[in-house]
Amino acid sequence: MRILTALTYYRPYYSGLTIYAERLARALVGRGHQVTVLTSRYDPSLPARELLDGVQVIRSYTLMNISKGVLMPTMFYSAWVNIQKADVVHLHLPQMDAAYIAWIGHLLKKPAVLTYHCDLLLPPGLIHSFANHVSHLANKISMRYANQVVVNTMDYAEQSLFLHQYLPKIRAIPTPVELLTPTQADEHSLKLKAGVEPGQRIIGMVARLAAEKGVEYLVGAMPEILKKHPNARVLYVGQFQNVLGEEVYINMLRPMIDALGDRWTFLGILPPVELAAFYRQCDVTVLPSTNSTESFGIVQVESMSYATPVVASDLPGVRQPVKMTGMGRVVPPADAHALAEGISEVLSHPEQYNGDVDALINTYSPQHTAQEYESVFREVLRNR
Question: Do 267 and 235 contact (CB within 8 A), yes or no?
Fold first, then answer.
């Protein structure tokens, strides 16, 4: 099967959406399919074309950024040419270019499958407001021409004001999660890198330093946590410098984080084996996201797969991994006190938050996810 995938950012850009798309593309190639990715050349130093793990990546020239999106003058032509060669079109939303790509697919009688990752909610401002409106319009047009819509959980779809009207088209497919087994040497190396000392209780967070991730609530929870667990410390993994569109937020957080001193450490983006060792070192990980731009949180399943419990916000979709496994606590979003209580409870009674790790790993394996998508692609091809 020839699958054309389109999304705004792809490897080496780092976000939950790009990680999802990359893992799925590789798994589909592993199942014998031909996968081509259309994306932005957001960094001029990136090649216009390259083969990555069997996936053909085509990057369109980027004229300028519009909020968190990009303007790609050549994307229409590239989509037109490559859709003709494809059997099925796969779009990852939110994506400003999705509307005309879905329309081209419809015009050329190629079925379209959309993966709706999350809502796009940008901060106030003229440019952000414009981007919000364009994205919402693109979503509506894309949905009109979609043959099938995939989401991470039906919980998110049923609670979304936008997705609720498209429920007959929607199907939930587990998010792909890749796991590595770190060696003792890997774990020792990570300890040295992070400066982990004996007796410390490690609270982990994995995310871009972005407003919707609710980092300020973890910062605000730390004084209360430290009263009960004086040896607690946050290790933060992910991009924390030069995060696109988050400059004001990061500048606001900086003095608050600095005030915590050695109780907060940024580790940056870790390679996969170091990330696996990181999860093993954590006593608990947190996902304190605040709004519907977070629809699931791959990092939760990653953490639980290494038997590390999670404290997550009580948001549609985000709450599902904890509820399904019992491996953690769900707390109200945007509430530093509730977050502190949840983290402290898990640190005090870790034995209460065990779960079936093997079943979790099987459910969220990339191979299982690719098999589910393959079934969807074949179905829309039969019904076109």
Answer: yes
Helix then strand then coil, in percent of the chain rounded to 5, is 45, 20, 35
Query: pLDDT (tens digit, 9 = 90+) per residue, 322-344?
Result: 999 999 999 999 999 999 999 99
**What is the CA 343 to chain-centroid distance, rounded?**
22
pLDDT at 122 over 60: no
Element (H, E) at 36: strand 34-41
pLDDT band of 5, cuts 50, 70, 90: very high
Provide the CATH number for the domain formed by 184-363 in this structure.
3.40.50.2000
The CA distance from 218 to 253, in Å, is 11
Residues 6+ apart with CB under 8 A from 342: 311, 329, 330, 331
Domain with CATH 3.40.50.2000 in the chain: 2-176+365-383, 184-363
Whole-model pTM?
A: 0.86
Q: Are 68 and 249 in contact (CB under 8 A)?
A: no
Q: Say if residue 382's pLDDT is above 70.
A: yes
Confirm or reject CATH 3.30.70.2190 for domain 2-176+365-383, answering yes or no.
Answer: no
**How many other C-beta atoms lie within 10 A of the C-beta of residue 379?**
15
Average pLDDT score over the chain: 93
CB atoms within 10 A of CB 183: 12
Find the angle CA(28)-CA(106)-CA(368) to the nearest 5 degrees: 20
